[in-house]
Amino acid sequence: MRIQIDPDEDRFLLDHMVDGSPVLPTVMQLDLVARALRAAGQERPAGLLLRDITVGPAVRFARPGARDLDLLCTPEPSRRSAPPAWRCELRSPGQDTPHLVAVAGPAAGPSPRGPAPCERPDILHCGPDLVYPPFFHGPAFRVVGAFGRAGGGLCAALVPGLPPLRWGCGPTVLRPRLLELLLQCCGLQELAETGRMMVPAGFEAVHWLPASLTVDDRTSAMAVVRPRSGPQNSGPVFDGQVVTPAGTVLVIVIGYRTADLGQAALRPHSAHLTRCLDSRPEPGPAEPAIPEGVSR
């Protein structure tokens, strides 16, 4: 697929500016993958499972006007008995290094149930004033309404009444802000721990459950994340999930890893953030669910 993206049409880009230039968010790149799979007739009743996701150079709009992207989907070699999978690469024409690589495989099994984090609303005692700034997002991506510590990790509630999020050519396939909520929750934990701003580098797996494809991402949801040790000589990775107030799992993330954006001047804000997070007790642990076929 050749895709044309134009900040004058895809207005959400103006709410995702880095160093003065619009940058295509990772969550919207994954929506392009979902769009290609839908066009190829690869929709699954159990939702969408993407694994082995690598985030490469940013899709930056340093010059005015539209730019083209190519999305190539090729069959992934597999065992004879295994269902087919697709390797998806998002590239700029003429460039060798892809912006995003993901393998789309079949998602199977019943939808897991998650915890009902609203049983302890008092843990969400930190507000969006601690997020924006320093996070660079505009209104369309200011998704964190409140957050706090939870079981060694963090949880964050989706702010209600967000402005619509859509491509200039039509609606999104996924509900990208559900995943964005989880990623910003991870970013808050890393900012509190390191004083640095982090950006996505990759995932072991992201599973959009069927309910996530139909839910309104401007209502109620909560992200629950927990760090764990990553591969040798690397930083922590995160597991987590996005759930409704009733505990219905919408999105599951396994092995989310980040890269340093290079903004080390946030340590005073980091100390303030840590003091706020530590001013209330934590609830008991809530173990994120693991999609079938994916191991830690």
Brief rundown of the structure:
This protein has 296 residues and is an alpha+beta fold.
Q: Mind explaining what this structure looks like?
A:
The chain is built from three helices and 13 strands; from the N terminus they run E-E-E-H-E-E-E-E-E-E-H-E-E-E-E-H. It is of the alpha+beta class and 296 residues long. It has an eleven-stranded antiparallel β-sheet with strand order 1-5-6-7-4-10-13-12-11-9-8, with helices on one face. A two-stranded antiparallel sheet has the order 2-3. Strand 8 and strand 9 form a beta hairpin. Helix 2 packs across helix 3.
Oligomer: single chain
Sketch the major β-sheet.
Answer: 11 strands, antiparallel
Please identify, by name, the CATH architecture of the largest domain: Roll
Q: Number of DSSP strands?
A: 13
Helical residues, percent: 10-25%
Shape: globular
Segments where pLDDT lies below 50 for 5+ residues? none
Compile the SSE list and pairings.
Blueprint: E1 2-5, E2 17-18, E3 21-22, H1 26-39, E4 48-55, E5 67-76, E6 85-91, E7 100-105, E8 144-150, E9 153-158, H2 176-194, E10 198-208, E11 222-228, E12 237-243, E13 249-260, H3 267-277
Antiparallel strand pairs: 1-5, 2-3, 4-7, 4-10, 5-6, 6-7, 8-9, 9-11, 10-13, 11-12, 12-13
Helix pairs in contact: 1-2, 2-3
